[in-house]
Design brief:
This protein has about 110 residues and is α+β, with helices and mostly antiparallel strands. The protein is about 25% helix and about 30% strand. A hairpin with a 5-residue loop joins β1 and β2.
């Protein structure tokens, strides 16, 4: 089962990573000033991850494939890791689709 892990960056912004059941990070958010905004970002991922038209497949300057997940308004809400192949990228999208809707939310900022 997947997990959304909320953490706080050095600059005090909040972010989340979506991890697959094997612990691998499959999606990373932008930084959020407020934790409530970060939590709304997670809810947006849960909804938008089910719509294949929200995934934008891209190629980085280093030639590696990656994807971004966009909200209905076109704003990027998550970035994938870099993949060595298009099939790896497609597997990453499938993993986000499978894990995001039911992923538990773990708030690591509460441990401080």
């Amino acid at each position: 089962m997947g997990k959304f892990i909320i953490t706080q960056r050095i600059n005090n912004e909040y972010q989340f990573n979506l991890k697959a059941g094997n612990g691998e990070i499959i999606l990373t958010s932008e930084g959020y000033v407020q934790k409530a905004s970060c939590q709304k970002g997670i809810e947006s991922i849960k909804v938008n991850s089910q719509d294949l038209s929200r995934y934008d497949r891209r190629v980085a300057k280093n030639g590696k494939d990656y994807f971004v997940l966009k909200a209905r308004n076109g704003e990027i809400i998550g970035n994938s890791q870099m993949y060595n192949s298009k099939s790896g990228l497609e597997n990453g999208i499938a993993s986000v689709k499978a894990n995001a809707p039911t992923a538990e939310i773990v708030d690591e900022t509460l441990k401080k």
